[in-house]
Amino acid sequence: MSLWIVNGKVWDNETNELKTLHIRIKDKQIAELTAELPDTGSAEVIDAQGKLVSAGLIDMHVHLRDPGFEYKEDIETGTLAAAKGGFTTIACMPNTRPVTDTPDTIKYILDKAKDKGAVKVLPYAAITKNELGRELTDFAALKEAGAIGFTDDGVGVQNAQMMKDAMALAHSLGMPIIAHCEDDSLVVGAAVTDGKFARENGLKGIPNESEAIHVGRDVLLAEATGVHYHVCHVSTEQSLRLIRLAKQVGINVTAEVCPHHLILSDEDIPSMDANWKMNPPLRSPRDVQAVIEGIEDGTIDIIVTDHAPHSAEEKARGMLLAPFGITGFETAFPLMYTKFVKTGKWSLGFLLERMTSKPAQVFGLGSGRLETGAPADLTLIDLENEREVDPQSFVSKGKNTPFGGWKLQGWPTLTIVDGTVAWSE
Hints:
By secondary structure, the protein is an alpha/beta fold.
């Protein structure tokens, strides 16, 4: 049985405009794309009614909180929230409890995602046991179990020799190292960036160099070992300079940025509301401009959400005591579309590339393409409908966002994974 999506608008990279296409899906693949309205026969038909049809969005940095923190999020709610946000493939971080540092935990995630998940889930494994930075995990066994890369996300690997050993081992297995870059000695007791908001509120700040020091160290180690080194959630001008230089001299480094670091600075924080507390923190307007330039010139490769749900009770503890992190799945595309495409700064194709084909390319995935033979992972997006961000309507258990009340356009309305509807308005 086949499925037709008719009357959809598809971005044409050659003409840099939208064109009407009809798409046939069969056997979990895109079987046909045609400009002629087809005879659909007995096939199931979805009328896109002029909405954008894109390859499914890909998010290579998310927190599903499962196992161990299911009160914040679990694989079922997290993947459904991802589907609602237009994502068809997501990669989950290992700072769970237990930490995703054994084949058994990888198996648990993959099995639960297959059973309960709405989208495809790719698990990362920890670099060090319990993410304590003291002993490497069994990389070969974790790869065999299905891990797609290694990261101690949530904490930086503080010991340079440990990181070098990890990179050498990962490289020998053809696997990437994904780094949360943060020097712990510079951030103790700080909740926001070392900037205007911190000064005005008498707070200790997180300095830019806490991130950039690890970036600088790690690109040199990546050069020495040859590993594919990927920098998480870049937020500072200094980090950008180092990544740009590393790319110029041929080091195998890629990088990502989150919507909130492209849109908000510490000067936008309205109060001691912990829904504005994240790690890396919101930086200065100058840093915001630097990361925008970084994605525009290719220094930063992809956009991720760093979806980090927490309970309302945890976030109610205030800026100093609440955990770091905001939810991201359900607002990411509308935020980026409204702030960068609608304003004419970027083309729609530029944005789609950094949320579909580019992540697939960076991590060697087979998805992210809208072409015959590609996986039938697709997203329909209403580019015209404007609506207000309502955290209480989130599918995610986490309602922690600084974007509540924002009016945005570009809302996903239907998500298809392997030819089956995963979520629909």
